[in-house]
Amino acid sequence: MGNAHAIAAASRPGPRHGAALLSDRSRAATSSIIRDLLLLVDRPGMLSLAGGLPAPELLPVDRVATATATVLATHGPRSLQYAPTEGMAELREIVATRASHAATAHVEQAEDVLVTTGSQQGLDLLARALCDPGDVVVVESPGYLGALQAFAASGARLIGVATDADGLRVDELEQVLDGLIVAGTPPKIVYVVANFQNPSGATLALDRRHRLLDLAARVGFVLVEDDPYGALRFRGEPLAGLRALAAGRDDGASGLTVSLGTVSKIVSPGLRVGWAIAPDWLRPALVRAKQATDLHTSPLTQLIAAEVLADEGFMSAHLEQIRSTYRERADALADALASEVGPGIEIGAIDGGMFCWGRLAGGESATDLFEVAIDAGVAFVPGDAFCLDDSGRSHLRLCFTTLTPDELGQAASRLSIALSSLT
Length: 423
What we know:
Blueprint: H1 2-11, H2 24-28, H3 33-41, E1 47-48, H4 61-75, H5 89-102, E2 113-116, H6 118-130, E3 136-141, H7 145-153, E4 157-164, E5 167-168, H8 170-182, E6 189-192, H9 206-219, E7 222-226, H10 242-246, E8 257-262, E9 274-277, H11 283-293, H12 299-309, H13 312-341, E10 345-346, E11 355-360, H14 366-376, E12 378-379, E13 381-382, E14 395-399, H15 405-422
Parallel strand pairs: 1-12, 3-4, 3-6, 6-7, 7-8
Antiparallel strand pairs: 2-9, 4-5, 8-9, 10-11, 11-14, 13-14
């Protein structure tokens, strides 16, 4: 009997410790390359074009302070208490009103709005509500890294579709969809940043928006439009959002379209307030997923955001200041690249948002350039971070919002020196 116990004990696996206890999902998750880069470039004298951050001097500290005092005086304990998962009524009302007036999304009632802890949570909730492991999600290539992470974490199979100066190549998407339908694996989600896309800065053309809605109705996927940058247009005329365009159709596209928004780029990322405007059949599933995630977004920051957003006089002047500043800085970067780097880096027109997408005309590796550029005192994000394949090898994302025009000129000069040493 003793020998039997010894044999049984020897055949049992030993106790697991540390990382061996992690789930498969956790082990498969990747860190944000951009977050890792920001740690690397946080050193004295570094001129960073890497982070997608709002200009810190434009963050409305005084207005938020006033709003905080007003919220605490007006709402008292309610602002510090547990709150409905769906969000505070005041914020849902103002979001619905602003979205309808700006034609960014069709909103029939405030109840269409689900408040999220930043729009990044909206992506996570959509993945939880819609995606089983192996389901297909179509994304832009290059595409927003946070979306790639959120959908991949759900076990979805990501397929990238190329973009150009007019946004997502909808003609290429149609070919991809035909192949997926034949294979019996139509996508659950097609995800786009239609206005000043991150990282390319491209805006989806109006005819492509309509064609995208045609495809959603025909194939039956959820069309997710993430719109953090639409209010940052400083040239040209705004285009109606996909959910607003879908409202006038009778083919079912409106019931398949989700609009994500946030205060991060127009008020403050630190408030961590975003929203999802979703059809009736989907919203309850998003609410249940949020209940299991964080119960609710902070009522204090929701009410602060509502107070600021409802101040139309302030918001109008504040957004104009942001647009004016970003236009000046975008032009400064474009001019500096043209004069300092010349034909070595190609960029397109910059009409809004926070980024420009450069291409190394000689085909050099942007990752190789990054390593040299860091030593020269300038940082950017290599294009590979935003692509599922190697199509971003010679591209780089440049953020122009946090440096002054003079600093942007210096950054371009350092980039030129780095590129010269590389070639």
